[in-house]
Amino acid sequence: MKKISMYFLFVCLLLTGCSSSKTELPVENTEENQARLEINKIQLPLEPDCSVGSYFVDGDMVYYSINMPVGDYGANPDIKFDDSMETEIRSFDTQSATEKLLYKYHAGYQVDVNDMGICNEKLYWLDSAGTEDEWFRVVAISPDESEDVEILFTSKDISESCTMITPETDGENIYFYAEDDGTVSICEYAQGELKTVQENVYVNSPYEHLSKWNDTYATASKTDDGYEIVTIDEDGNYSDHETVSDVSELQMNDDYMTYLSDPYNYRNEVNVIRKEDHGVEQIKTDRFFNYGLLGNYLIFNKSDHITAYDLLSGEETELLKAEQDSFEWMFRRGETLCTKNGNEIYVIYNETVGR
Fold first, then answer.
1. Which residues pair with 152 in a beta bridge?
2. Of 255, 237, 236, 326, which Cα lies nearest the Cα of 296?
3. What is the CATH number of domain 49-201?
4. What does the DSSP 8-state code read for residue 202?
5. Nearest alpha carbon to residue 41 among 64, 16, 66, 63
6. Between β-strands 137-141 and 150-154, what pairing exists: parallel, antiparallel or unpaired?
7. Most exposed residue of 13, 47, 144, 180, measured as fewest CB within 10 angstroms of its CB?
8. How far apart are the first and last CA of the chain?
């Protein structure tokens, strides 16, 4: 690491129970190109003892699941599950500070909700409310209409042995890794059809989020020498990039590919491949929970604080510090990263002016 300058960006606007605020970190890279990170803090209006499950930020709108308090079954095993404990899906408009109930389950138990997203103007998510033969299902609703959920597909539509996926979206397609009896494939759901894009790819865990950029997937394949990092375009064409001993949390944008090479041990380094010259650089930092690639920045979630490492200048800057609890898993959607701390959601954007 060339240089480290750590400081905390104070959010100067006072937050109420239903509000959001924004702050910026300008970092000038060249005279013609000034990149900046923008941080938006959103505080959701929650009832006491409720908690946020899955969430998705779409501009000024936040969509999220609410887990209701169900009591202490250990202390009182006679507690009856009732309608007030059912999982809810809500939206929150950060501009008008308006919350709306979109959907309420009537399952008779708390439903696990994960991996929300917006695809073709519909809000989708993965849930555990299917039949006994279905490990999971992916459902959708129209955020502007009050209706029952539409089942897009279930685990049985993929395979009998597929127990979990982590769906992602580019706004038009839903895509993910799926495992069938030890074989991992890249799958897509598009225009009402579920299809396999590529079989026999390697992923450290099938629960990893699949990286896609400009209609091209970044993944890996197993070889005699290790694992080959590859990209696959929409026509199924392969491009080889690097042979490595192991790979996980692979991410990509126009200029870089990044990955972890030792996912099981002490996480304090990320490998960076520069697409322009195929050069590889190893970036070391303090131990982190997970990371995200955002333009020319590596964003490190270190649980109690979040930092940004500039790949152009070699400087690392502290962006956020948790006053209590810790930051949860950080999700990447295009040029946006999101993480959560309690009922507060932090959205980190990458913006470039001068291009």
1. none
2. 255
3. 2.130.10.120
4. B
5. 16
6. antiparallel
7. 47
8. 28
